[in-house]
Amino acid sequence: MALSLFGGRRSNVFDPFSLDIWDPFEGFSTVANVPPSARETTAFATARIDWKETPEAHIFKADLPGLKKEEVKVEVEDGNVLQISGERSKEHEEKNDKWHRVERSCGKFLRRFRLPENAKVEQVKANMENGVLTVIVPKEEQKKPEVKSIEISG
């Protein structure tokens, strides 16, 4: 796993299967000057998702703490694009509440990944447990090249 110059995980800039748009200013926002209504959508806009490949499947894991499975959608678009989306609702505020700190994010997120040709998109499975979404995309079995011996005459 590559690290960026600024410490966190590097974006999928060079990954041909990722449809994410790289934002060179990510992490440099001036949140203090942004009104709370605008912060809602930007704070939760990019859910962090890991993608690993095993001999049998492509496995996606997303940390979505506080979300219920009913608030998350997993879809396959155009036959080969895995789309994971959802929304964390804003907490209900009472008129007399006085907030000292707001760090938890809310709003919508959407991530899209172009799946390789060997993905069995009709057999995708998803599971949500303890705030972690796991999506398993089985892979086609790799066919071993058939080797045929040729008799040498002469």
Describe this protein's structure.
The protein has 154 residues and is mainly beta. Helix content is 5%, strand content 30%. It has 1 helix and 7 strands. It has one helix at 36-43; strands at residues 49-53, 57-63, 72-77, 81-88, 107-114, 125-129, 132-138. The strands form 2 sheets. The protein has a 4-stranded antiparallel sheet with strand order 1-2-7-6, with no helix packed on it. The protein is rod-shaped and about 100 Å long. The protein starts with 35 loop residues before the first helix and ends in a 16-residue tail after the last strand. The model is unreliable at 1-12 and 29-43 (pLDDT under 50).
